[in-house]
Amino acid sequence: AEFIQELEEGLETMVGDRGAMLSGGQRARVSLARALLKQPSLLILDEASSALDAETERRIQENLIASGKDRATIAVAHRLSTIRNADEILSMVDGAVVERGKHDDLVAAGGVYASQWTIQTGDMAV
Q1: How many domains does the chain have?
Q2: 66 — phi, psi (to 5°)?
Q3: Please, what are the averages of pLDDT over each run of 10 residues along the chain (126 residues)?
Q4: What is the three-class DSSP state of 99?
Q5: In 10 A of CB 42, how many CB atoms?
Q6: For residue 82, is it within any domain?
Q7: What is the end-to-end Cα distance of the chain in Å, rounded?
Q8: Do residue 73 and residue 13 come from a single domain?
Q9: Cα(60)–Cα(69) distance, rounded to whole angstroms?
Q10: 80 and 117 in contact (C-beta within 8 Å)?
Q11: Quick one: 60 and 91 in the same domain?
Q12: Are 82 and 61 contacting, i.e. CB atoms less than 8 angstroms apart?
């Protein structure tokens, strides 16, 4: 991201309590950039886009897809647009998997995932 280049310490900028005064979205982008530079074979994202605006999330998703050919990614998200293009989605209630499948199939099934999709988007379209 352009803003990382503007930081005095770049990717080395501290992002915790004692770090630079960064927004939640900026902290998320620095942390994700650091993780991707390590080229892990497994990337676990826990609500990684919760502090991002929709446009930044879209750009990051495109980059994750483009760079993830040799990587498995597990994404934990309440914002379903974050996981819409996942190879497999697990929908959970009270810690138990209640549905699994692709986005279009889960929306068409009309279960828990479809209900949450409608609440978040106002749209049952796949």
Answers
A1: 2
A2: -65, -35
A3: 66 65 76 83 85 78 78 89 91 96 96 95 71
A4: strand
A5: 8
A6: no
A7: 31
A8: yes
A9: 15
A10: yes
A11: no
A12: yes
